[in-house]
Write a structure and sequence with these properties.
By secondary structure, the protein is mostly helical. It is built from 3 helices and 2 strands, in the order αβαβα. It has a two-stranded antiparallel sheet with strand order 1-2. Helix 1 runs antiparallel to helix 3. The protein is elongated, with a radius of gyration of 19 Å. This is Flagellar basal body rod protein FlgB. InterPro entries: Flag_bb_rod_N, FlgB. Its main location: other.
Length: 137
Amino acid sequence: MKPIQLADPISALLTKSMDLRSINQQVLAANIANAETPNYAPARFHFAEALQQAMTKSGVAMQTTDEQHITGGPGSIADVSGRIVREPATNPLGDNNGVSVDEEMVALSENQLMYETAAQLLKKRMTMLKYAISGGQ
């Protein structure tokens, strides 16, 4: 007999996405805070590809349109942790700081929007679950 799961795969995905976006927000905020630091290499938090691969393996199937598409992944959604990569300055002029405040602000806004979207979807899912448990009343 299959054990009862309190968190379905979609809710687990949304929760993990929010956790990872929270870490990404901290990384982007650190980049902005160091915009004036000489020789600072901005950090990038990479997690989207690993999360997408984990979705395939954990029952949240991604539809493929070609048989050559990759369907494998590292494991469950809970195993996705992301990785931080430093990107040195590509323009060695000035203080050798690679932070573009404009680009960081755009990335920060996008990340925040994606976080809020996941939070709204999770809230809607919980509301629907509560409605079903109460018998539609």
